[in-house]
Hints:
It is built from 13 helices and 5 strands. About 40% of the residues are buried. A 5-stranded mixed β-sheet has the order 2-1-3-4-5, with helices on both faces. The protein has helices at about 5-30, 50-60, 75-80, 105-120, 145-165, 170-195, 205-230, 235-245, 245-250, 260-265, 270-285, 290-325, 345-360, and strands at about 40-45, 65-70, 85-90, 95-100, 130. With about 375 residues, it is of the alpha/beta class. Helix 5 runs antiparallel to helix 13 (about 345-360), helix 6 (about 170-195) packs antiparallel against helix 7 (about 205-230) and helix 7 runs parallel beside helix 12 (about 290-325). The longest helix is centred in the last third of the chain and has 37 residues, at about 290-325.
Amino acid sequence: xxxxxxxxxxxxxxxxxxxxxxxxxxxxxxxxxxxxxxxxxxxxxxxxxxxxxxxxxxxxxxxxxxxxxxxxxxxxxxxxxxxxxxxxxxxxxxxxxxxxxxxxxxxxxxxxxxxxxxxxxxxxxxxxxxxxxxxxxxxxxxxxxxxxxxxxxxxxxxxxxxxxxxxxxxxxxxxxxxxxxxxxxxxxxxxxxxxxxxxxxxxxxxxxxxxxxxxxxxxxxxxxxxxxxxxxxxxxxxxxxxxxxxxxxxxxxxxxxxxxxxxxxxxxxxxxxxxxxxxxxxxxxxxxxxxxxxxxxxxxxxxxxxxxxxxxxxxxxxxxxxxxxxxxxxxxxxxxxxxxxxxxxxxxxxxxxxxxxxxxxxxx
Length: 364
């Protein structure tokens, strides 16, 4: 290609086009065709009749449902509040009842209602639906936490672009401390959204902030460390990790049982799922499952610390070579690993800054 300018533009178009492909594959693959896959439900009753009824439901649904029987209605409520089942059906000739927990998943509750409505119709009675764990009135679908996750994620990975580009001359320990500080601010913004602004959280706002801080700190530390190795490809990598795979596996819109096996399996250990399920546990389920979700976020934070540690070790010889070449300690504010640049015309500096900004923030 004869035109360097055209080649330069086409090279920079690679990243947004890859993002387009990745976002289409991720979002459409995860959300377009939700279907139950081994969706856990319970049938309330004891004795042979209840077991035969449960087996009939299972045979009719096939792999879409995993059906168990429980002896009492209270047992079924306990399973719903521990999120071990998505729905619990109480047979009855006069008033068959379906119990759900929409705070765990509004889409999951809708899915089991579609399954058991025709079952109740065969018993000749309308289905009564009881919600044992409803979200707050300010978030009637329970999906506000998913959109809070999006806000926290954008604040985190966009800050990585700023720290990586503008902070490249700083020592890694300084960038890491900045990442921890910025994550506390991002978590504070998330807590404001969840509490005073949109009223998603009517209690335990400090816990919501703590979960948001852990989530944002893991992303920021991973991103700051990766920038040392990936440079301009850091933004694309962060988009893959914390948007394409993260939002789709978080359970904020669809429970893993309503998704294909790939995204459903990611839900077990990805950080977005840890945040969404952890905050749900805190706000709606008396802390049930909170510890395991908090540990998921801690593990991601430890991964971030490990990545930044490796990046610091990688940068150390370059700093030493720079110091030896210049015969002095690197001056704060200068780029590490290369001699002090000669003065450039303002236009050249502006063009270089614009190019760097485009490379770093194209995905924001």
